Amino acid sequence: MPEHVLGDMNAQISSCRTGERRVIELVEKFGPDTFTQAIDQILDHGERLARARLATLPKGTWSAEDWVDDDGIDTDTMVKIKATVTISDDEMLVDFAGSSPATKGPINIPFGCTLGVAGLVFKSITTPNEPANDGNFRPLRVEAPPGTLMHAVPPAATFTLWPALLATEVVTKALAKGLPDIVPACSGGDVCSMMGVGVHPRTGKMWIEATNEGVGFGGHADNDGENGIMHITEPGCRNNPVEVLETKAPLFIERYGLRQDSGGPGTHRGGLGVTREYRFLAESSAVTLVKKTKTHPWGMAGGKDGENCHVVLRPNTEQEHVTGMVYEHMAPGEILANCSGGGGGWGDPFQRDPDKVLDDVRNEYVSITSAREDYGVVIDPDTLQLDQTATQRLRQKSGKEE
User: Fold this and answer.
1) pLDDT in the model for residue 400
2) How many angstroms separate the Cα of 222 from the Cα of each of 3, 143, 183, 225, 343?
3) What's the rounded Cα separation, in Å, for the pair 136 and 169?
4) Structure pTM?
5) Do residues 137 and 229 both lie within one domain?
6) Closest Cα to residue 48, out of 139, 169, 150, 161?
7) Which of the residues 52, 122, 318, 359 has an alpha carbon 20 to 30 A from that of 209?
8) Is residue 263 within 8 Å of residue 365, measured between CB atoms?
9) Strand 140-143 relative to strand 193-199: parallel, antiparallel, unpaired?
10) Structural domain of 248
């Protein structure tokens, strides 16, 4: 299906040629000496901004770990990612020692991608609002033992997706121990991509369509996490509308909406993940890209975990099966439900403003049961009114009322 990739390739070539032409124009206008001096000053300025922010951050060393479901071959063994972050006066060191050795399956990542993982987090806490340049990253040092999951060497099988996705969250998790008022809780934790492929019954040609699902972002010191947006490592990826998928592919979207109670409870609630149900209208193959179904998006500062992502094959049938990554033949009429994770909560959920919990229940973000059990907030199921007396009594009984 070359028509699906030639456009992307031509766009990349065109952007490189445009960049080359613009550089030549600048050099011809100002001369090579002025051009290189300007570059040096831009990079030095980027470094100064990063170092100025770094100087204000707490100093210390913190470690965290999380797990990839498996490497695709040994499906019973989870794969560990560990990160130790040290912030000193002049640098931030991110060390991935302690992560799993290289795996047989294709999830190892080259060290260049590992640099990008650490760089993304470093920039987000130092110069998040500045255009990126290499000077921003001069105070960052990254280490990972060669031959391990986070530093692939030949002949390791590689894929620059899952360890990079989850490692970003692990670095943040380590930083959360020292910077709880700056970094958020874990997001839904994966791209939760679904891809369909087959022969289109109308055209007789091969078709392929894919989309990433939005995930819930983690709550943070200032507010709740956002609902159903692209994972932090995938901000440029598309979240295809229902109409596009149904027009271009033999698919019918049965249901698409936020997952109630998927956001981790907290003083600031985690954002909600989504559920999208795909009904296949022709013989097809379905591929899901998701590797964080065996662990939950972590809460912080007393917040609870969010619901993890998962896939439900053929829901409400005798063949219903809850799983993670799949490569599955789908017959006409069969359904795949892709359920993305919610963000972790931040802070004690019993300290959440009861009126905010009531709003969440009325918006169907939180169930009445969760409001009572997770937040200590009693809401009348018939009137959807807050029972302030019962709420105060329940919170006092739990020893969590201010």
Assistant:
1) 57
2) 46, 32, 10, 10, 15
3) 21
4) 0.91
5) no
6) 139
7) 318
8) yes
9) unpaired
10) 184-347
